[in-house]
Amino acid sequence: AGVAHADARLYQGCQVILTPTTDTLDKQRQQAQAIWQALGCTVLQMSPEAHDAAFAAVSHFPHLLAFALMNAVTSQPQGQEFLSLAGPGFRDFTRIAASDPKVWRDIFLSNRQQLLLQSQHLQTQLQAFEALMLQGDGAALEALIAQASSARSHWHLKQHHHPQPAC
């Protein structure tokens, strides 16, 4: 929105990941790291392959899930009625489904191998949940839910000082 909205602290506390390759000169990597650190960022370094695997799991795949869930609900004859009954959980889960389709098309295609691997992991988990529901095994179902609940309770998102961080 222009210079009037400039914020010198825009990147403070943000995480930046450098993904050097064998062609990256050490001097260039050090300069990039110094620039980001001067802006207040925490700089991590990983291989492009490790980056793609990690971000398929924690960024790209959640977007895929949000798009798929919206399509799954709205493709049903009573989908609009279902949406009219949706609350904050559905809103929060699907917020990212409003993202730019062209951007996500390109991300999905460029990182398809890792996304397909994440899809396989999710399918394994869904099948485990479905099998327990079919069996009526409440104790085992509760254990799977508790496992996820505990993992989520112990995970802490690194917070940024801005309400809507640039990073």
Question: Could you walk me through the main structural features you see in this protein, from its secondary elements to its overall organization?
Answer:
The protein is mainly alpha-helical and 167 residues long. It contains seven helices and two strands; from the N terminus they run βαβαααααα. The protein has a two-stranded parallel ribbon. The protein has two domains: 1-45, no CATH class; 48-154, Orthogonal Bundle (6-phosphogluconate dehydrogenase C-terminal fold). Residues 161-165 have low confidence and may be disordered. The two termini are 17 Å apart. Helices cover 63% and strands 5% of the residues.
List keywords for this structure.
167 residues; mainly alpha; 6-phosphogluconate dehydrogenase C-terminal fold; 2 strands; 7 helices
Please provide a brief summary of the model.
The protein has 2 domains: 1-45, no CATH class; 48-154, 6-phosphogluconate dehydrogenase C-terminal fold (Orthogonal Bundle), CATH 1.10.3660. Helices cover 63% and strands 5% of the residues. The chain has helices at 26-38, 48-74, 79-85, 88-94, 101-110, 112-135, 138-154, and strands at residues 15-18, 42-45.
